[in-house]
């Protein structure tokens, strides 16, 4: 058994050496030759007594080549590696950047977008298109919508459930359900659920502020594919009515050709889903929350919204505030299996390390500048198998700068830290996907997981007397939010 273990460990080191050697020799521009050389060395170097290792070696070459090519094509701007000491900073050019960080999404990863003078929509690429690591959340998409003051967004519906968070501004949202029309005034901090197939339109009712929405979409048809359906607002082809013949439209509405043209031809004059509205139109669309039942409807009005600020903060201290909403607080969240967390991290402070037990967390940066660090077993090239077939994990640091519009995916169980720069607070909305029965556990500070271990477990794990370990893990008396490295440095200086 000892001999087999040596062969296995030697094999893993050998494959890593092949990949590194091929990379140095050829560079990223000759990736096909790189894979060929890697396979060739598998054939030439592995001995007869290790013949069964050749398929594994070749498979490792192919997997490495596939993942490396995908990340390089996407032009990743994330970072990996040690950024301690003098190179730590916000936008420091000396920090080394790598192209193999699939956890960070920036502007170039928003593959569907519409930008106009009155507003814009940006939809993030499929998570599973970025990496196979995200196959478990392939039904979800993330998006931002921004509308200028006094702007109307034309009615539309999607083949997806939508969870909307109001990151900035105020407005009115109107839903057309089967037997009612419901309008609700929305403001910063509000959460709104729009079911699939329900027609919705939005109005930014403010005279000065931009309306900014951060959204999670849950597809109900093809996983991760989204389709928007609209009767107009863009060019003539943007109305689904234009897909039908004139005769069908005339018969459906019982009108003549000239009248039908008002439905299918009006887009030629105003080619935009974002419309500048007059003050009178804004006043009419806004007003108090209201619902209207159709003449023969007796369905009760449904509340599809709440506020992230409805309950007291889950955690609050001088270093930050955490607000949380789950399906117990807002039953609509059960439909899309999502929980919501809003972090407001004081400048120079940090949240974590912590981890989630069952939810994959999608963090969307709303305001401020910061940085995150995460312990990741997936990217490490040092993982080896023992002679018993078990995995000895090696964890690698994944890190990146954070700014408005950055999206970060934190997989289940991955310890993470979110830091705010020393200049301003960092605001982050977190959507916990597949959140049923999820819990988050702090790894430092008050109520951290380690503080609940038995003394013997501490001694056997860390190799020091339990009391010495406790002095370390119990020193921090705050929960979740702490002074970050920047503030600690200033205090000690």
UniProtKB/TrEMBL annotation:
**Highest taxon listed in the record's lineage:** Eukaryota
Q: Where is the Cupin type-1 domain?
A: 108-261, 306-470
CDD domains, per database record: cupin_7S_vicilin-like_C (cd02245), cupin_7S_vicilin-like_N (cd02244)
| Compositional bias ranges of the Basic and acidic residues kind | 69-80
Give the region (Disordered) as residue ranges.
Answer: 69-98
Residue spans crossing the bilayer: none
The species this protein belongs to is: Helianthus annuus (Common sunflower)
Extent of the signal sequence: 1-27
Task: Kindly provide the name given to this protein in its UniProt entry.
Answer: RmlC-like cupin domain superfamily, rmlC-like jelly roll protein
Organism ancestry: Eukaryota, Viridiplantae, Streptophyta, Embryophyta, Tracheophyta
- Which of UniProt's keywords are assigned here? Signal
Q: Which Pfam families match?
A: Cupin_1
């Amino acid at each position: 058994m000892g001999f087999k273990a040596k062969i296995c460990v030697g094999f893993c080191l050998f494959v890593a050496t092949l990949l590194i050697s091929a990379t140095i020799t050829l560079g990223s521009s000759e990736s096909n030759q790189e894979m060929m050389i890697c396979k060739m060395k598998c054939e030439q170097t592995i001995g007869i007594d290790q013949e069964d290792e050749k398929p594994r070696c070749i498979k490792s070459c192919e997997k490495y080549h596939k993942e490396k090519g995908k990340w390089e094509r996407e032009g990743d701007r994330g970072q990996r590696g040690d950024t301690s000491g003098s190179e730590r900073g916000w936008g420091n050019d000396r920090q080394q950047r790598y192209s193999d960080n699939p956890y960070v999404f920036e502007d170039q990863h928003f593959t569907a977008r519409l930008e106009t003078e009155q507003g814009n929509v940006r939809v993030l690429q499929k998570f599973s298109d970025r990496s196979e690591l995200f196959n478990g959340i392939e039904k979800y998409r993330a998006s931002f919508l921004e509308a200028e003051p006094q702007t109307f967004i034309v009615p539309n519906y999607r083949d997806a459930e939508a969870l909307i968070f109001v990151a900035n501004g105020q407005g009115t949202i109107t839903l057309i359900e089967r037997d009612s029309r419901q309008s609700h005034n929305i403001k910063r901090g509000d959460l709104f659920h729009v079911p699939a197939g329900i027609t919705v339109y939005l109005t930014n009712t403010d005279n000065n502020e931009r309306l900014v929405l951060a959204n999670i979409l849950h597809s109900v048809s093809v996983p991760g594919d989204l389709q928007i359906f609209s009767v107009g607002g863009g060019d003539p082809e943007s109305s689904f009515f234009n897909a039908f013949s004139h005769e069908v439209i005339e018969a459906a509405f019982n009108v003549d050709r000239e009248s039908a043209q008002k439905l299918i031809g009006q887009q030629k004059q105003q080619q935009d889903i974002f419309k500048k509205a007059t003050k009178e139109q804004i006043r009419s669309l806004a007003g108090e929350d209201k619902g209207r039942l159709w003449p023969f409807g007796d369905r009760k009005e449904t509340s599809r919204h709440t506020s992230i600020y409805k309950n007291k903060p889950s955690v609050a201290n001088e270093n930050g505030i955490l607000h949380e909403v789950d399906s117990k607080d807002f039953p609509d969240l059960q439909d899309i299996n999502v929980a919501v967390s809003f972090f407001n991290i004081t400048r120079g402070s940090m949240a974590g390390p912590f981890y989630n037990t069952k939810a994959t967390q999608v963090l969307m940066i709303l305001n401020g500048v910061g940085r995150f660090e995460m312990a990741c077993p997936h990217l490490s090239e040092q993982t080896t198998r023992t002679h018993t077939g078990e995995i000895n994990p090696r964890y690698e640091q994944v890190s990146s700068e954070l700014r408005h519009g950055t999206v970060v995916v934190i997989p289940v169980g991955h310890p993470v830290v979110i830091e705010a720069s020393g200049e301003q607070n960092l605001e982050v909305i977190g959507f916990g996907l597949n959140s049923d029965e999820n819990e988050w556990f702090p790894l430092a500070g008050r109520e951290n997981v380690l503080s609940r271990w038995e003394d013997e477990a501490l001694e056997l794990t860390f190799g020091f007397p339990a009391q010495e370990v406790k002095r370390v893990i119990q020193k921090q008396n705050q929960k979740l939010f702490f002074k970050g490295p920047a503030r600690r440095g200033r205090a000690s200086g």
